[in-house]
Specification:
Keywords: Coiled coil. Pfam families: DcaP (PF19577). Residues 406-421 have a biased composition (Basic residues). Residues 68-87 have a biased composition (Low complexity). There is one protein chain. It is built from 2 helices and 23 strands. Helix content is 12%, strand content 42%. Strands 1-4-5-6-7-8-9-12-13-14-15-18-19-20-23 form a 15-stranded antiparallel beta sheet, with no helix packed on it. It folds into 3 domains: 2-66; 98-191 and 199-213, no CATH class; 222-431, no CATH class. By secondary structure, the chain is mainly beta.
C-alpha cells in the first residue's frame, strides 16, 4: 500500500513540470510585454489564472510531502473458508405437519435377570411367567416333587421406545399423537424365535392414541386404573395381585379432576367345572363405562373410580345367550410424608371385574350347568412405603398385593422387597426379591 501511494505522488510531480514550462514559454514570447490590445489583455489574464493554479498545486504538493503517509498494514493471507457442515436433514421430518409441531422420542434399554423357584409344578419354557411375575401362572395342584425347580432367565425384551408429536392449531386447539412399543412379543416365543440362538422377540404395541383438547381416542391405560399410585418396581408391575392393570382401546373425555371413558368390552369366564380355566369371550355389545375423580395437591393425590360393564356369553350350537352386569370401585392415591417419603395404596372391590385386576388373575364369571353366568366377587389391594435417601438411593421397600374371592376358590399374595441405587445419571442397577403364592382352595 505504501509503495502505491508513493507512486501516485510521483505521478502528480510529473504532471506539474510541463505546465510550468508552458508558462515560461508564454511569458518569454517577444512582443507580449508591449502588446496591450484587448485580446492580449485577455490572454494575460488567463496566464495569471494558470499561474495561480500552478501555485496552488505546488503548495498542495509541499503539504503532502511534509506529512508522512499513514502506515497501512499489508494484507495478511486470507483465512481459509470454513466448509459448511452439511445439513442433517435437508427436508422437514414431516413435510405435511402443521408449522410449529414438536416431535419427541425416547425409551430405554433394560436387561432383566430373574431366578424363579416353584414348589408345586414347573413353569413352561417360554411362558409369560418366566419373563416376569404373573400370579395366575404359578403352578398349583397336581404337581410332583420332581417337577419343582429353579429357573434362571435373562432377556432385554422389555426395552422400550416411544415417539410423540404435539401441536397447537391455528384455532388454538391442542393436538397430540403418541406411540409406544416394547419387545414383549405377547409373552411367547412359539412363533417368533427361541432361546437357542437368536432370542428373537417381536414388537408389542403398548400405547397408540391421539388427543384433541379434552378428548382422547386410541389405546392407553384404562381410566379405571391409577398409574400414578404404582410403585417404581424392578419387576414388570410390582404389587401385581393388588392393582388394577389394563391397557385397551377407548374414547375418553377429561374435564378438570373428572374423566369418563367408553372402553373395549371383553368377558373372561370359567367353563362349567372348568377348574379355574380361563376362556375369553368377545360377545359383548356394550362398551365398558368408567368414571374417575382425582384430587391433587402438594400433599400427593387421591382418586376414586367406578366401573360398569356388560358380561356376555353366547353358544350358538347350544342356543345359549346369557348376559350379566359387572360393577366395581377403586380407591387409590399417594400421600407424601416429608420431602423424601411417601405412602401409596390401592383398594379395589367389585363383582364381575376380574380381568381388570392382577393381570386377569381372576375371571369375571363362571358358567353354571345351564350355561348361565354367575359373577365372581373380588377384593384386592396393596400398600407400600418408599424412602428416598439424599443420594437418590431407595431404601428397601416392602409392599403387599393381595386378592381374595369371597366364597370362591382362588387367592394370591405377593411380598417383594426392592432396592434401587443409580450407578450413574440415567443408569440404574436395581435388585428385588420377593415371594408369591397362589391357592386354589377348591382343590385342597
Amino acid at each position: 500500500m505504501s509503495t502505491r501511494i508513493a507512486s501516485q505522488a510521483g505521478q502528480a510531480g510529473m504532471g506539474r513540470r510541463p505546465l510550468a514550462a508552458a508558462l515560461l514559454v508564454v511569458l518569454g514570447l517577444p512582443g507580449f510585454a508591449f502588446a496591450q490590445t484587448a485580446k492580449e489583455a485577455e490572454l494575460e489574464a488567463r496566464v495569471a489564472q494558470l499561474e495561480q493554479m500552478v501555485q496552488q498545486l505546488v503548495a498542495e504538493q509541499n503539504r503532502q510531502q511534509a506529512v508522512p503517509p499513514a502506515s497501512v498494514a499489508a494484507p495478511g493471507p486470507a483465512a481459509p473458508a470454513t466448509a459448511a457442515s452439511p445439513a442433517i436433514q435437508s427436508t422437514p421430518i414431516m413435510p405435511g405437519a402443521n408449522p410449529g409441531t414438536r416431535f419427541s422420542y425416547g425409551g430405554f434399554i433394560k436387561l432383566d435377570s430373574s431366578i424363579t423357584r416353584t414348589n408345586d409344578g414347573d413353569l413352561a419354557d417360554g411362558s409369560v411367567g418366566r419373563l416376569f411375575y404373573v400370579p395366575k401362572t404359578i403352578p398349583v395342584g397336581g404337581g410332583m416333587a420332581n417337577e419343582s425347580g429353579t429357573d434362571t432367565d435373562m432377556g432385554a425384551n422389555f426395552s422400550r421406545f416411544w415417539f410423540g408429536a404435539d401441536t397447537e392449531l391455528d384455532s388454538g386447539d391442542k393436538l397430540k399423537a403418541y406411540l409406544e412399543f416394547d419387545l414383549f412379543g405377547g409373552g411367547s416365543t412359539a412363533f417368533i424365535g427361541n432361546e437357542v440362538s437368536t432370542n428373537t422377540y417381536a414388537p408389542t404395541l403398548r400405547h397408540a392414541y391421539v388427543s384433541w383438547n379434552n378428548w382422547l381416542a386410541g389405546q392407553t391405560w384404562s381410566n379405571f386404573q391409577d398409574v400414578a399410585a404404582l410403585p417404581d418396581a424392578v419387576d414388570f408391575l410390582g404389587p401385581t395381585e393388588g392393582t388394577v392393570f389394563v391397557r385397551q382401546a377407548q374414547v375418553r373425555y377429561t374435564s378438570g379432576p373428572w374423566s369418563f371413558s367408553m372402553e373395549n368390552p371383553q368377558t373372561v369366564y370359567t367353563p362349567y367345572q372348568g377348574n379355574m380355566a380361563q376362556v375369553s369371550g368377545d360377545d359383548g355389545a356394550v362398551p365398558d363405562i368408567t368414571a374417575r375423580y382425582t384430587a391433587k395437591g402438594d400433599w400427593g393425590h387421591f382418586g376414586i373410580a367406578g366401573l360398569a360393564r356388560q358380561l356376555k356369553y353366547q353358544n350358538g350350537p347350544l342356543g345359549i345367550s346369557e348376559s350379566g352386569t359387572g360393577l366395581g370401585a377403586s380407591v387409590s392415591g399417594k400421600f407424601n410424608i416429608g420431602a423424601n417419603d411417601d405412602f401409596r395404596y390401592m383398594v379395589t372391590a367389585g363383582s364381575g371385574i376380574g380381568r381388570y385386576v392382577g393381570l386377569a388373575l381372576n375371571n369375571d364369571a363362571v358358567l353354571d350347568a345351564e350355561g348361565g353366568l354367575e359373577n365372581i366377587d373380588l377384593v384386592a389391594g396393596f400398600g407400600l412405603a418408599t424412602r428416598v435417601r439424599p443420594a437418590a438411593a431407595r431404601q428397601p421397600v416392602l409392599f403387599d398385593g393381595r386378592v381374595r374371592q369371597p366364597g370362591r376358590v382362588h387367592g394370591a399374595g405377593h411380598h417383594p422387597l426392592r432396592f434401587v441405587r443409580p450407578r450413574q445419571p440415567d443408569l440404574y442397577g436395581p435388585a428385588q426379591a420377593g415371594s408369591g403364592r397362589r391357592a386354589d382352595l377348591g382343590q385342597a
